[in-house]
Amino acid sequence: MTKAARTEAAVFALLREHAADQDGLPTTIRFLFYGLEQRGLAQKPQQGDERRNCRRSVGWPPGSQDVTDAVTRLRNDGRIRWDWIADTERSLSEWLHAPTIADYVQERLPEARINPWGAEPPLILTESRGMALALTGVAAAYCCPIAGTKGQAAGFLRTVIAPLLEDNDRRVRYLGDLDRSGHDIEANTERVLEQTADRAIDWERIGLTDEQAKDIEPIWKVDGRDGKGHWAWEAEALGQAAVVALVRSALDAELPGPLANVLERERGERDRIAAMLEAGEAAP
User: Fold this and answer.
1) 20 to 30 A from 124, CA-CA: which of 152, 168, 201, 230?
2) What was the pLDDT predicted at 172?
3) Three-state secondary structure call for residue 229
4) For residue 238, is it within any domain?
5) Nearest Cα to Cα of residue 175 among 85, 238, 254
6) How much is the pLDDT for 284?
7) Which of 61, 84, 107 is the C-terminal boundary of a domain?
8) Residue 283's pLDDT is what?
9) 70-84 average pLDDT score
10) Selection from 256, 254, 255, 205 nearest residue 233 by Cα
11) Model confidence, pTM
């Protein structure tokens, strides 16, 4: 098999594993790459590689661009669904509407939620946007706002995130890489948010921790600030299923009661409201 064919086969097999997991899709190319990299089926640019496009490897195993190319071919050929891969760079703003308010309420009723926390739900922040997109489903289940900061953010933290932390006791649960850059990004994020929200924040890194990194192969990274190389453990290397599981576990440990009880109450209240709407009691 050619390198391209071998890469496609490896990516396809890993995607089938994601598809078999309840929270495995959609995923990101970054999660796929690090999942393969931990199995020895992909590699980051090697120390001393000065090629202009070193994201493609020389020979086997493939580099990150090779994995991206394989995903593109699999999507174009129809071997995987387009919606299996989340786009981490683009978004659409859309406004919902209906002929009447009653119709609108009825259409949106399946999304009506009860706050399971009894206070402001924790805010989940991730170092990468792709991580946040992959965790959107689990965050929604727990009614937790989630965002990826994409590195050393400034305006975004002050204008979008900080208002969620003002005049309340909302906690922050953070996921990021385990290396110098990752810790610097986290420290900057916490500092900016505490200064802007004007309070101390209950802040906890739930991943990646030293303990979680024990079974992960590190990668060699060069810090753009000083040109020095260092070993790094990236959060996506845990695998999407493991990251989802650790977030669920962390949130379950903080919930005042079982989430299943709240979900059951939601279903009952939605059914009652739906029956009222169908009977015309809420018609204009």
Assistant:
1) 230
2) 98
3) strand
4) yes
5) 238
6) 45
7) 84
8) 47
9) 95
10) 205
11) 0.80
Do 176 and 231 sit in the same domain of this protein?
yes
Question: ∠82-125-194 over CA atoms, to 5°?
Answer: 155
Residue 102 three-state SS: helix
Let me know if residue 66 belongs to a domain. yes
What is the Rg, in whole angstroms, of the alpha carbon atoms belonging to the chain?
A: 22
Assigned domain for 89 exists:
no
Q: How many domains does the chain have?
A: 3
Q: Can you give the pLDDT at residue 52?
A: 65
Centre a 10 Å sphere on the Cβ of residue 16 and count the other Cβ atoms it contains: 11
Q: What is the sign of the dihedral through the CA atoms of 251, 252, 257 and 262?
A: positive
Phi/psi for 223 (5° steps) reads -75, 120
Q: Are 52 and 171 contained in the same domain? A: no
Domain harbouring 168, CATH code: 3.40.1360.10
Residue owning tokens 């802007």 = 196
| pLDDT for residue 38 | 87
- Per residue in 17-49, pLDDT (tens digit) is 999 988 899 999 999 998 999 899 998 877 666
Is residue 145 located within the same domain as residue 72?
Answer: no
